[in-house]
Amino acid sequence: MTQITQTSPNEQEIILQLKTLSPAQQRVVIDLIGALQVPAVSSQEDRPESDKNANIKINITQLLGKDELNFEWEGQVIYPLISEAIARQKTVVLSFRNVKRVSWSFITKAIGHLYEHFSESQIQSCLQLVDITEQNLEFLNHVIETKKEFLINPEKFRQPMSDEQLEELRQKQPNNPMLKVVGMFKNDETFDDMLAYIAEYRRELDEEYFRQIDAETAGS
Length: 220
What we know:
Elements: H1 9-18, H2 23-36, E1 56-59, H3 60-64, E2 68-69, H4 72-87, E3 92-95, E4 101-102, H5 104-110, H6 120-126, E5 127-130, H7 134-152, H8 154-158, H9 163-172, H10 177-181, H11 191-219
Parallel strand pairs: 1-3, 2-4, 3-5
């Protein structure tokens, strides 16, 4: 009798994300999936000698093929791998070797999203960040703390920032170029139309991107 193996939601998400990657990057993910299938053990002493260092190691630049992490979809590739490992009580070593830049969107999706499904103690015990620059680590911690605050009090983040709060931020970060332009569209009546145009254009770009991926997959 053929045994039917059910896939977890994380594994289904991993499979879905494979289509966005090159064949070489797909092989990296498949190797990681194979490592995830090895059962976790309760203690270091219980492990065979050959398996004592068998953590799940994810090298971001090797997996994504880039050293600047700017987009949410890049984090979406990483997230289910980490999530599945934590669910299986495995240790994940996430390497930022050669990563030059990380964005808010990437961190929120790859790591911040974990806090919606696991306790902080679970994440801290299972996730290790290595080879990360001091600047990127400081930024990552700031994003994660903001995510945790949002989960505690989401309404706080939905309220518009007052002029006083904005001025306070500008004084704390005088060289932040974003704060110099924040609020410039406050009284612009066409602002909502601009946001709608941006959303539509982003949707068109996403559709074109996945059409190209499907065409490349069909031709390979």
